[in-house]
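Retro notes (design track)

What went well: tokenization of the new backbones is finally stable.
What didn't: we kept losing track of which sequence belonged to which structure.
Fix going forward: every design gets posted as structure first, then sequence, in one message. First example under the new rule, 454 residues:
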């Protein structure tokens, strides 16, 4: 090997090592933020008994799910606030701040007194902390996805950003693992009494470790180049939403990509869990184990579809995921009922001898749909918008699609089932939104995977 060839190889290896460090640091923090965010949803049935009056279990659960949903609804505001910070000050600074806010809010939930101790202040304070979580997550994802994408070589952005996409599912998986370990070690009675607080309190340790790792990271090279050339935006909000062409892209990104992706994601992971627990009356531990195992086996497919999108395009994979999910949800949930051991003639009775293996397969298939729509979407969004407004522009449609359209899936689905008495009626909402996204995205979304930044 010549000296020039050896030098070239050394540079290539150095660049490859750098991108993996960037992915590792970004993913660690993002995983922790998702872990913090998901603990609440995973413990919804227990939280409802701790922070709301007893005697009206369905109302308490719906109130908890509504509080859970507020964290999603407020995410677009976090996207606007921290998106602007990320486009003006820097990607790194923005997601350092969001990490600390998320960690403090989550830890505070673990210390919050229940309804029996402080009355109506318990759900009010819970709601405020949930709003802080939503604001933080609204700024985190766009920063991490943009940061990794702007470090990635041209032609491999789908592959490298797909590792960030795994963090949401891994965050849920870790949250379920911590919850199950705590519950099994303390016992059901202790866990329901105070042990549920442990997963929230562990957050403070995880956040501090991630903060120390992220503090040593450098700013995105694409962002630094933009600032050096004096091309930054002084008003990312105005440029993103008042400029006609950029506004059009934001609207298309929402209705033609992220709305459908959001409902497919939360149906496959959260609604499936609620459905197992609240409709099919599958045991709490068994239901969480089903979700955890399905997530474990499906998670590698985020990277598979992310890498595939570099070759055949983001749009084809995402639209296929939306369409297939919309067509398959009803038969999948019919099959879940058949294998659950639940008796519709006695809907309040617990499921008897559920077929755990088949239920896990059925949830796995739903998460596979999630990987199709979610694996390529970070690369798709960052490629859609120019550097000077990228953080702001991509964050808003992402968090409206996921936070509003997706985050409302458990609440709307559970409310429709409660109102109609038809336990399949909750699927109307995710099926309708997924079909809308398939139509809009197929007709109007353009493919930008070949755009060059380096």
């Amino acid at each position: 090997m010549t000296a020039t060839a050896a030098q070239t190889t050394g540079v290539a290896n150095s660049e490859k090592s750098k991108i993996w460090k960037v992915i590792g640091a970004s993913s660690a923090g993002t995983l922790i933020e998702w872990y913090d965010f998901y603990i609440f949803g995973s413990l919804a049935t227990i939280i409802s008994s701790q922070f709301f009056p007893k005697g009206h279990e369905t109302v308490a659960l719906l109130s908890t799910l509504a509080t859970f949903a507020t964290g999603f609804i407020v995410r677009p505001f976090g996207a606007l606030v921290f998106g602007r910070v990320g486009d003006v000050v820097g990607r790194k600074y923005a997601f350092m701040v969001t990490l600390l806010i998320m960690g403090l809010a989550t830890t505070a939930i673990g210390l919050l007194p229940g309804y029996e101790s402080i009355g109506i202040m318990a759900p009010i304070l819970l709601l405020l902390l949930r709003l802080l979580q939503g604001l933080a997550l609204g700024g985190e994802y766009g920063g991490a996805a943009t940061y990794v994408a702007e470090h990635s070589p041209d032609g491999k952005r789908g592959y490298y950003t797909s590792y960030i996409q795994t963090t949401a599912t891994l965050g849920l998986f870790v949250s379920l693992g911590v919850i199950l370990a705590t519950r099994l070690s303390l016992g059901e009675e202790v866990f329901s009494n105070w042990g549920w607080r442990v997963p929230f309190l562990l957050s403070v340790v995880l956040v501090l470790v991630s903060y120390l790792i992220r503090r040593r990271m450098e700013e995105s090279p694409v962002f630094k180049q933009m600032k050096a050339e004096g091309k930054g935006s002084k008003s990312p909000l105005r440029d993103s939403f008042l400029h006609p062409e950029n506004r059009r892209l934001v609207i298309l990104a929402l209705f033609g990509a992220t709305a459908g992706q959001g409902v497919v994601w939360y149906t496959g992971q959260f609604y499936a869990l609620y459905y197992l627990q609240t409709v099919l009356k599958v045991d709490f531990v068994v239901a969480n184990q089903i979700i955890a195992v399905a997530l474990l086996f499906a998670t590698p497919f985020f990277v598979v579809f992310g890498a595939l999108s570099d070759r055949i395009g983001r749009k084809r994979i995402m639209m296929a995921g939306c369409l297939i999910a919309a067509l398959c949800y009803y038969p999948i949930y019919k099959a879940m009922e058949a294998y659950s051991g639940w008796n519709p003639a006695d809907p309040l009775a617990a499921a008897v001898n559920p077929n755990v293996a088949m239920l896990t397969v059925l949830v796995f298939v739903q998460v596979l749909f999630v990987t199709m729509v979610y694996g390529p979407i970070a690369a798709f969004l960052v490629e859609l918008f120019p550097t000077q407004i990228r953080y702001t522009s991509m964050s808003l449609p992402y968090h409206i699609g996921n936070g509003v359209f997706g985050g409302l899936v458990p609440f709307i689905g559970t409310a429709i089932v409660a109102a109609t008495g038809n336990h399949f009626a909750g699927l109307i909402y995710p099926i309708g939104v997924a079909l809308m996204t398939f139509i809009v995205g197929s007709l109007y979304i353009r493919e930008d995977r070949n755009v060059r930044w380096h």
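Added context from the reviewer: The chain has one domain: 20-225+232-444.
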